[in-house]
Design a protein that fits this description.
Distance between the termini: 67 Å
CATH superfamily of the largest domain: Metallo-dependent phosphatases
CATH topology of the largest domain: Purple Acid Phosphatase, chain A, domain 2
Strand content: 25-35%
Oligomer: single chain
Structural class: alpha+beta
Number of strands: 36
Shape: elongated
């Protein structure tokens, strides 16, 4: 039987279900079912969990003979340290692993990785000192593409979740500190906190070997260091990733009232930062992967988490197996609470890491769990049968993803400022032939009457006039303030059109519009914004057009391969499967040139551009070049001196389909534009 420094038995943390079974098996404690008054068959494990926060935690490592006066550490360090942190400490020299300056994550990339290391106590246990797994994990963090063979990109922070050692002995910390020197020497951003095997009591315990090793003096070496609590046991860190600043709170195993006050103050003083809380105990889990707050976790929830909307993720160790839960905070937003701990597995967890791979573009965090040490040994053919099972854990509690709309989740404290409208004159790049925008066209939902004229902002007289299909409803064309977030004009026109039979209203250029005769021999850029509603239907609304040109292929003398006699000479429209189709007849061939987009989604704004450099045409969606672009030569566009139609589509010279959805700004330029010159740039 192992003992802690005060001589009490060393009872490691256990699976909560195992503890519940021990209670009901006659250990002298109340049965699980008795704890909440339910019948024997009910067996409320969650009620037991709430009561197990201390009893089931294992013997704490008290600090007999190690306590001293409370150190007077200053908190609230200047933000200049964190603001200056760009993730790079490189002095421009190529330095090797383990040298100061090798830590250089990209602070602006929308893809970055936050790494977690839980309880490592069995690797630093009196004379049982086995640092190799932790060393391998740190090598991975400092060089994920190196020997460990990982795929984590752009690691920005490492968080240790406590129980660094098993007994809190100075000799154990002496071994640990040598391993953490690897992070310090590389200038890595990391946070450490004390678990119950590292310390005893709450954060007012005074001096301990843990504090001597991981106190503020060491914490300040991290480029992400922000501040420490006066007692030294809590640390705040701020790092930059994904183009914004994030806060990590590394909180002690047991917080006093002073600790809670400090943590709340740090969050309050940084009101726009998303916060990840790391500590040793908040939730425990069950064999099905679900989790619930422990008794102390409830204190954490009530005293810190639920009323600070900035906290979106909490990470803790202590119990096993791993698990997670989601709770609504006082603002009604999700807080993800995760427990991860592998000390019960082979080789004390073998330095297992859990990586949180943020992808702000996808609105997703992908979680993976693996042992870099086992990966290294596998590369050297040194795995035994037990180790072979620990290279990577892929159960649903160890390998999963979370969908988070970061802008929406953080809107309550860090709203993304809406891009303001841009004056029409700013959109008139050289070569602009026509520019139509619909902001200021009326009241929300207001109908546009027949004969309404939309002026060409370019000043070339390519005005649009409203046309109604016979029998069109009064609200066939209405105005909305809805718009693409990057659209210059803040407004759009809602087309309530359809085909089979045709109905609705559309716009066309006036008869004498100069653009009607334009053939674009040297190239062009045609771009617009659009959105289709939830009731868009491929059978009723497919093969419609956002922008087309009147006149048929036959009338233009286009009868070569791929030509269709009755179709218009130019169409930028939507297929029945909600793909963008660009179909146009160039000057240099009798056939059509056609480009396609991928399948798009309803109820979402899109920007589309067709760019021709006088040689080939390319389709772009949201500034991204599509893959189904033609490579055949296409020079200019056929013209029969007939109008452009906005929202209308002709077949055999007659309007047969009217767009169903919203259109925003439309611009036509007589040359190829770069992506950074598009209207959404």
């Amino acid at each position: 039987m192992h003992t802690t420094p005060d001589g009490s038995p060393d009872a490691p943390e256990r699976n909560l279900l195992t503890e519940a079974a021990a209670h009901s098996a006659g250990c002298g404690c109340p049965r699980t079912a008795d704890l909440d008054g339910e019948g024997p068959a009910a067996g409320s494990r969650r009620t037991f969990l709430r009561g197990a926060g201390v009893l089931g935690a294992g013997a704490a490592a008290t600090a007999t003979g190690l306590l001293g006066a409370t150190p007077a550490f200053a908190s609230g360090a200047s933000d200049a340290h964190a603001d200056a942190y760009s993730g790079a400490h490189d002095d421009g020299k190529k330095t090797g692993r383990g040298k100061r300056g090798t830590w250089s994550p990209d602070p602006e990339s929308p893809r970055f990785t936050f790494v977690v290391m839980p309880d490592t106590q069995y690797m630093f246990d009196i004379d049982r000192i086995h640092p190799a797994p932790m060393e391998a994990s740190f090598r991975y963090v400092l060089d994920p593409a190196g020997r460990a063979g990982g795929n984590d990109e752009n690691i920005v922070f490492l968080a240790h979740l406590g129980d660094v050692t098993n007994n809190g002995h100075a000799e154990e910390f002496a071994a640990v500190t040598k391993v953490f020197d690897m992070l310090d020497d590389a200038g890595a951003a990391y946070g450490v906190l004390a678990g119950n095997h590292d310390v005893g009591g709450d954060d007012q315990r005074g001096r301990t070997p843990y504090l001597d090793t991981f106190g503020p003096a060491r914490a300040k070496k991290s480029p992400a260091y922000h501040s420490s609590s006066p007692d030294g046991y809590h640390t705040s860190h701020i790092f930059r990733a994904g183009g914004r600043r994030w806060m990590v709170l590394s909180l002690d195993w047991r917080m006093s009232d002073a600790g809670f006050a400090w943590a709340n103050t740090v969050i309050r003083e940084n009101p726009a930062l998303p916060v990840i809380v790391t500590t040793h105990e908040i939730v425990g889990s069950y064999d099905d992967g679900s989790a619930d707050l422990s008794a102390y976790g409830q204190q954490m929830w009530d005293g810190l988490i639920k009323d600070n909307d900035q906290i979106f993720l909490t990470l803790n160790g202590h119990y096993w197996p791993p698990g997670s839960t989601v709770k609504k905070n006082s603002a009604g937003n999700d807080v993800h609470l995760h427990i991860t701990n592998y000390q019960d597995r082979y080789y004390g967890g073998s330095g297992m890491l859990r990586s949180y791979r943020f992808d702000l573009n996808r609105g997703r965090i992908d979680i993976a769990t693996f042992s870099p040490w086992m990966r290294e040994r596998a590369a050297e053919d040194e795995l035994n049968a037990a180790a072979a099972k620990e290279i990577e854990l892929t159960s649903p509690v160890d390998y999963f993803s979370m969908d988070i709309d970061f802008d929406e989740r953080f809107a309550g404290f860090a709203p993304v400022a809406e891009r303001g409208p841009r004056a029409a004159r700013r959109m008139l790049v050289p070569g602009t032939l026509a520019y139509w925008r619909f902001d200021g066209s009326g009241a929300e939902g207001g109908s546009l009457p027949a004969g309404t004229v939309v002026q060409d902002q370019s000043g070339h007289g390519n005005d649009l006039v409203l046309q109604q299909v016979p029998g069109a409803a009064a609200n066939a064309l209405t105005w909305t303030g809805d718009h693409h977030p990057d659209q210059p004009g803040h407004g759009g026109l809602v087309f309530a059109g359809q085909g089979n039979p045709v109905a609705g209203a559309y716009l066309r250029t006036v008869d004498k519009a100069p653009v009607n005769a334009e053939t674009f021999p040297h190239g062009y850029t045609i771009e617009l914004f659009f959105k289709v509603p939830a009731d868009w239907n491929g059978g009723r609304n497919g093969w419609s057009s956002m922008l087309s040109r009147a006149g048929t292929a036959a009338e233009a003398g286009k009868n070569g391969p791929g030509s269709t006699a009755d179709e218009p000479v130019m169409t930028l429209g939507l297929s029945g499967s909600l793909e963008i189709q660009w179909n146009a007849y160039p000057l240099n061939t009798d056939g059509a040139t056609t480009a396609w987009s991928h399948l798009l989604r309803q109820q979402e704004w899109w920007h589309v551009a067709v760019v021709n450099d006088g040689k080939v045409s390319k389709l772009y969606v949201n500034g991204c070049e599509e893959g189904r672009n033609p490579t055949s030569k296409a020079v200019g566009l056929a013209s029969l001196h007939q109008p452009f139609l906005v929202g209308g589509y002709q077949w055999a010279g007659n309007v047969s389909q009217v767009f169903h959805g919203t259109l925003g700004d439309v611009r036509i330029v007589d040359r190829a534009l770069r992506v950074d010159q598009f209207m959404n740039a």
